[in-house]
Amino acid sequence: MDWKTAWRSFYYDGAPEPADPVIDRERTAFLVIDVQNVYVERADRDMLSMAERRRFDAWTPFHQRLTGQVIPRTAAMLETCRAAGIACFFARIACQREDGRDRSLSQKLPGWNNLLLPKHDHASQVVPELAPLGDEIVVTKTTDSALTGTNLRLILRNMDIDTVVCAGIFTDQCVSSTVRSLADESFRVIVLEDCCAAGTDALHERELEIINMIYCHVMRAADLTALLGRA
User: Fold this and answer.
1) Cα separation of 214 and 104, whole Å?
2) What is the domain-level CATH number for residue 53?
3) What is the extent of the structural domain holding 171?
4) Strand 188-197 to 217-219 pairing
5) Rounded CA gap, 181 and 171, in Å?
6) What distance, in Å, lies between the first and last C-alpha atoms of the chain?
7) 25, 7, 145, 21: which is closest to 85 by C-alpha?
8) What's the chain look like in SS3?
9) Which of these, 28, 69, 128, 203, is most buried using a 10 Å CB contact count?
């Protein structure tokens, strides 16, 4: 299905197809969100309790998508953007203090999102396959949105960026929050569906339907590559 008709929500059923985005390479940024070691590395399943194994197995499809698709396609897109002269940015979750006192409330509450990732720890670093090169900018956040929790907004404005292409995890959390913040600040936003993942495919697909055409255009990496070939 063409990206112009895919990922349609109830609100946009039957709406006109959007025009192709105009990609000005000097005014476009590629932002990779939260693809960090903590989300890739896993425990030894044989060392887990039965309850822990159930959770481990529930997360296996996510890890398969992340390592089998999201990371390699994002790495390829980084190469494409670098060759095209598009600025590459990275956002990561990390706290400034070892005790995590500077974290936002959502990262202190009990549950899955209770994250303690000191900025120098291995777990908080961007995965090696997507490592920033040279002077590429990395922003550090303790919020879901990479825009509200950092000085990214100021940097993008200073660099005269008006279009941001987003990839990363999790589609329904930090990616979505960042996309909404960018849209509210009148940036044009593109989300690369096959460079993103949520905890389940169902959550991923539902969030794409929610944000598509309101806050962003959802497409695949190949769609963007084709647009760049015409730019």
Assistant:
1) 27
2) 3.40.50.850
3) 10-14+21-230
4) parallel
5) 14
6) 23
7) 25
8) CCCCCCCCCHHHCCCCCCCCCCCCHHHEEEEEECCEHHHHCCCCHHHCCHHHHHHHHHHHHHHHHHHHHHHHHHHHHHHHHHHHCCEEEEEEECECCCCCCCCCHHHCCCCCCCCCCECCCHHHCECHHHCCCCCCEEEEECCCCCCCCCCHHHHHHHCCCCEEEEEEECHHHHHHHHHHHHHHCCCEEEEEEEEEECCCHHHHHHHHHHHECCCEEEECHHHHHHHHHHC
9) 28
Tokens representing 210?
């929610």
Structure-model confidence comparison of residues 113 and 162, the more confident one? 162
Amino acid identity at 116: L
Specify whether the CB–CB gap between 212 and 7 falls below 8 A: yes
Does residue 84 form part of some domain? yes
pTM over 0.85: yes
Which single residue is written with the structure tokens 């697909």? 205
Distance CA 59, CA 128 (A): 21
Nearest of 138, 140, 134 to residue 115 by alpha carbon = 140
Q: Which pair of tokens denotes residue 89?
A: 């940015």
The string of pLDDT tens digits covering residues 162-198 is 999 999 999 999 999 999 999 999 999 999 999 999 9
pLDDT tens-digit readout, 18-51: 999 999 999 999 999 999 999 999 999 999 999 9
Strand partners for 63: none
Query: What dihedral angle (degrees, nearest 10) is formed by the CA atoms of 114, 58, 40, 153?
Result: -50
